[in-house]
Amino acid sequence: MSKVVIIGAGGVGGVVTHKCAQVPDVFSEIVLASRTQSKCDAIAAQIKRPIRTAAIDADNVPALTAFLKKEAPALVINVALPYQDLHIMDACLAAGVDYLDTANYEPLDVAKFEYKWQWAYQDRFKNAGRMALLGSGFDPGVTNVFCAYAQKKLFDEIHTIDILDANAGDHGYAFATNFNPEINLREVSAKGRYWDHGEWIETEPVSWSRQFDFPEIGPKKAYLLYHEELESLAQNIKGLKRIRFWMTFSDNYLMHMRALQNVGMLGIEAVNHKGQKIVPIEFLKTLLPDPASLGPRTKGLTNIGCLVEGLKDGKPRKVYIYNVCNHEECFREVFSQAISYTTGVPAMVGAKMMLTGKWRGKGVFNMEQLDPEPFLEALAKHGLPWQVKEMPVG
Ligand code: NDP
């Protein structure tokens, strides 16, 4: 029986709040805090259990520390934006609270994410006797746990991993992103990168593509991107030779993104407009549909998983470990599309692992460093069933 504070009332925050509310024996008290309290209140109004709400600016560390000391939760679930990660970690340390997030810290003024900033908190969390769990969404998150499961149960040696993320959903808009537009467009328009025999190899943005035949979705073209779990998995999966990340995009999405990039609308530096400073990508976010509003319009399936190749009992083996999620079913359950759902459910499951003592430790952890089995069992139970498919080797 534990109290949690959830920070962030966007698409993912809504799902996490619903899912925590479904497990009252673990999450006995839930506080939802975000910059705009009316968004917290709108989520709380969808849920039968009482959810307390609060206005908080997570970038104001003293105010957030005072708030956490007053509330004294066992855990903070951070589903605000990656820019807030370090501030929330600082406040958790100052208030003596455990920490969980779903996305790697990214500085506001550099479109680059790396674990180095959060891994630098290792000693501080260890010395304070507190635990921080990083990247407990789907990718990163479940994908890391799939790799840990492959290492523990399916392979003696893992040689290559390809993480595949397909969204075959349709929201009917000419252009919209399924999670925060700023974070999404910074990620997709950046250079690609993958890890091969100990070296990082850089590619031009969305310049490499490959066709994959996704179970239940069919063949789709996916593009090589850099994604944060590559960094921790390259370190933590023993004997790994190569790891890459692929995501599907429609031609329409890429055409819009490239046009916006070409005219400077993805810029992250302020420009002068009629005497006012405007950051183009922040203005673009104001114009684009709010991802939290896509739920009622989105139809179709997502398929996210890990294609793992290596050796088992001296023989080559290749498997695809994956989940398929249906946008409309997510909306029926928690008023959300599947991208927020597949992020919010693992955030709740990671929190449940920490609060029930199945995942405990002092310091900063990536998901693959913890036992995959209890997590995967709970994941299937709470809405994201997963499967292992044997694939032809080679
Ligand atoms: P949204 O933009 O929909 O929601 C973000 C929320 O954070 C908003 O409610 C926003 O408030 C709030 N917020 C922003 N800044 C602050 C602040 N300084 N203090 C308090 N609250 C703040 O984003 P999503 O819900 O789509 O995404 C949430 C997180 O999940 C992101 O970090 C994203 O990268 C991550 N994610 C992870 C995935 C994974 O698989 N691992 C997949 C998808 C997303 P306001 O409404 O006032 O702007």
- The CATH homologous superfamily of the domain at 142-334: Dihydrodipicolinate Reductase, domain 2
Q: What would the CATH topology of the domain at 142-334 be?
A: Dihydrodipicolinate Reductase, domain 2
The number of helical elements comes to 14
Question: Which structural category do the helix and sheet elements fall into?
Answer: alpha/beta
Proportion of beta-strand residues: 25-35%
Radius of gyration: 20 Å
Q: Which word captures the global form?
A: globular
Ligand species: NADPH dihydro-nicotinamide-adenine-dinucleotide phosphate
Number of strands: 18
CATH architecture of the domain at 142-334: 2-Layer Sandwich
Low confidence ranges: none
CATH class of the domain at 142-334: Alpha Beta
Main sheet characteristics: 9 strands, mixed
Helical content band: 25-40%
Instruction: State the end-to-end CA separation.
Output: 49 Å
Mean pLDDT: 96
